Automatic annotation (TrEMBL):
It comes from Paractinoplanes hotanensis. Gene3D superfamilies: NAD(P)-binding Rossmann-like Domain. The keyword Oxidoreductase applies. Belongs to the short-chain dehydrogenases/reductases (SDR) family. It comes from the Bacteria. Keywords: NADP, Oxidoreductase. The keyword NADP applies. This is SDR family oxidoreductase. InterPro entries: NAD(P)-bd_dom_sf (IPR036291), SDR_fam (IPR002347), Sec_Metab_Biosynth_SDR (IPR052178).
Amino acid sequence: MTTLDDLFGLRGRVAVVTGATGRLGRVMAEALAGAGATTYLVGRDQGRLEELAGKLGGQCRPARCDVTVDADVAALGARLREEHGRVDVLVHNAHVGRGGSLRTSRTADYLEAADLALGAFQRLLDATRDLLEAAAADGSPSIVNVASMYGVVSPKPHLYDRPEAGNPPYYGAVKAGLVQLTRYAAVELGPAGIRVNCVTPGPFPGEGGDPALLARLAQQTPVGRVGDPAEIATTVLYLASPRSSYTTGANVIVDGGWTIW
């Protein structure tokens, strides 16, 4: 009889999650570690990383790294090379959330967002490509990019109390670019046995948000509610697992139906 471990088990595998201490990153890391992967928690705050690793258990390793800094990412790659010699799962989830509009956005905001979404992908790939290729010898290594519903559709200004409280234009623009970069990378890396997919979350607001805003967001989905971060973990786990070995270049949308109407 096939077990869940047969389907989604990652024992003996190595996973890396950037933006690991964020509300989505932590559940992704928990799912991968729970499936047996040695999971490196990547972020800029060592204290928060150590705290999260303590909560998630012995499979997790805190790894302070700013993915916009070349030297930090190169050091992360060197550490992975020394400690394991392989990377089976790379989840690119790092982002900085803030509000804004065309009126308040500046050129520097676009450049910063692009570096965090697109430039960081290139840095991570440069630092781990040989490790992903090594994992392909006995597995199906997987890169999972985390985009956004606002890379697919525009925010609706009327949902917010003021324009600057909404999602800024550069965020959705670079997330749309990340979806396309996923397709491009899937084509180029496929012959090496490396899969590249994307997850597009819908409304997953943090705790303690404005109840009126949460209600308005919920009304935009056919299911009538916002998402629980745990609901994205299974998608990431599927894309990370060897049982998704024939899935590459896909953009899996987890949005309660927000983008279908």
